[in-house]
Amino acid sequence: MITPGTPFAPFNDVLIDPAQLKARIAELGAEITKDYAGGNPLLIGVLKGSVFFMADLARAIDLPLEMDFMAVSSYGNATESSGVVRMLKDLDAPIAGRDVIIVEDIIDSGRTLAYLVELLQQRGPASIEICALLTKPERAEVEIDCRYIGFEIPNRFVVGYGLDYAERYRNLEYICCMDEANLPPIEPARTRAQVEEGHPA
Ligand code: IMP
Ligand code: MG
Predict the structure, then answer these.
(1) Top mutation candidate among 47, 86, 105 for ligand 1, by most atoms within 8 Å of CB
(2) Ligand 1 binding pocket, CB closer than 6 Å
(3) Of all protein residues, whose CA lies closest to atom 9 belonging to ligand 1?
């Protein structure tokens, strides 16, 4: 695993470690398996933050299921909600008559999910539930009826296990806090050839 506190990921404040993630996702999977017994739910992952959660959750559900993805953007800058939700990628298939479970990384203000639920509701699914890995109850601005919650966390900015800061740190295997006063500068992406040539970032 990528060690906490490396130059690449200079955060030591691990909030949820890989074993805790695994154990809780197994519980969520078992709950969904029970609740949808005999059914065939459609998991809708919200890109990109939910990718690892979606992959692990889907494998913890012992039912025939399908997976689809959509992408929306809700953030004006790296850590503050702009309140504007824009559709970047829609679903591949219709959801009419389906039992939909929206799989989301984190509920912060709740605006993204409020928008998504309203949008998907108009397409006539049989049911819609939400499964969020994390919620920050202190930040809630819009009331969201979330059936499955992995962990309630304090009002801290977190990265890892899919969650990013300026697109980085999604590939950490754990969830850790970043202090906003202490955000590291993010260099623009460089190719390997540029790095080898000593090209400035
Ligand atoms: P909301 O619309 O304010 O609920 O924001 C939800 C989206 O904001 C999530 O899907 C994340 O992409 C992003 N977000 C909110 N809080 C955090 C955080 O602590 N770390 C990383 N991304 C976050
Ligand atoms: Mg994000």
Answers:
(1) 105
(2) 49, 74-75, 81, 104-112, 157-159, 163-164
(3) 106
pLDDT digits (tens, 9 = 90+) for 44-62: 999 999 999 999 999 999 9
Task: Identify the active-site residue in 62, 92, 108, 145.
Answer: 108
Structural contact between residues 89 and 69, judged by C-beta atoms closer than 8 angstroms: yes
What is the strand order of the sheet 42-47 is part of?
81-89, 66-75, 42-47, 99-107, 127-135, 148-152
Instruction: State the residue for tokens 């889907």.
Output: 58
Residue whose C-alpha is closest to residue 187's, from 173, 175, 172, 199: 199
pTM: 0.90
Distance, in Å, from the CA atom of 106 to the CA atom of 52, rounded to the nearest integer, reads 13
pLDDT number for residue 201:
55
Cis amide bond preceding 22, omega within 30 = no
Backbone angles phi, psi at 116, to 5 degrees: -65, -45
Question: For residue range 14-38, what is the model confidence (pLDDT) as tens digits?
Answer: 999 999 999 999 999 999 999 999 9
